[in-house]
Design brief:
4-stranded antiparallel beta sheet; 10 helices; Alpha-Beta Plaits; Arc Repressor Mutant, subunit A; about 190 residues
């Protein structure tokens, strides 16, 4: 991990990237690239600039992560989120979650899984399922897709599998949730 890489918690979308870039520009901190969960700086910055950046990120609901372990956890979460929401390319979408994470993080999955569980108090698989269910909730609330289409789009083996997993996590059937609406949805950074 390069010394000029900073990790940012709660970055989940393209708008977050734009907001972080705006903070960097306003803070006069030169950077090379901002991707979900990471800032690649042009050069090392002083502790004073780091503190300023942390304050400015906090003002927009993001958090600067200050150690490598937290950075690894955040990277795992970002990759799981991308995979759970089916936002990977076609080749990566066919990979098992364990293979996908190992390839991106250059560690054995057993190490990543044990590390994640020890820090987060839950397994990567449970986090993955929770993220998938949040995506299902989003799609149900927007009412643009049928349950069959959602199951297909998110690579569930069947509508029954999706329904069972949904009920296990939320306590509601997908159709009941659709009636109740968005009040049961969580913010992504709260999952």
């Amino acid at each position: 991990m390069p010394a000029n890489t900073l990790f940012v918690k709660n970055m989940v979308c393209h708008r977050c990237i734009l907001a972080v870039e705006d903070v960097l520009i306003k803070s006069a901190i030169p950077y090379q690239q901002v991707i979900i969960g990471e800032i690649h700086l042009a050069a090392s910055i002083s502790r004073e600039h780091t503190d300023l950046l942390a304050v400015n990120l906090a003002a927009i609901g993001l958090e600067l992560i200050d150690n490598r372990n937290s950075g690894t956890i955040e990277k795992i979460k970002q990759l799981v989120l991308k995979k759970a929401r089916n936002e990977t390319d076609e080749k990566e979408s066919k990979l098992k979650l364990s293979t996908y994470l190992s390839q991106h993080l250059h560690h054995e999955y057993t190490y990543l899984s044990g590390f994640f569980s020890s820090v987060e108090g839950r397994t990567i698989e449970n986090y993955f399922i929770e993220q998938r269910i949040e995506k299902v909730k989003e799609l149900l609330v927007y009412k643009e897709m049928t349950l069959s289409q959602i199951a297909f789009d998110l690579d569930y083996s069947s509508v029954a599998h999706l329904s069972n997993q949904f009920k296990k996590i939320t306590g509601l059937t997908p159709s009941h949730f659709k009636e109740v609406g968005s009040q049961k949805r969580k913010l992504l950074d709260k999952v």
